[in-house]
Design a protein that fits this description.
Length: 121
Amino acid sequence: AVEFAADVLNEKCGSRLVLNHVTSRWGALVLIALLDGTLRFSALRRRIGGVSERMLTQSLRLLEDDGLIERIAHQVVPPHVDYRLTPMGSEVALKVLALAQCVESNLDKIMQSRKLRAEER
């Protein structure tokens, strides 16, 4: 079996694509929202303020393709679809949440830095 050494700093490394999905604005928020448990599309859209139906659908498909979320389609009328994290998705989502919490806890300092930089220009 051929093994691949992941090297996100290498432009040809496949992990860059997944990292892009995970750290995109909507991808990160989907992962964080699903930490609360299984959600239907409409509930997920309400939970993530400002996301369009198109962008949510696109993010869900990418994260599903990456094996981070699972789409469960129930055979009922009207159609009912749930989304939940896979075990790997939960692991990634917890790390994304930690990053978001770090940013949130430093938001005052970040905004002050932005203000100072803007004044210097």
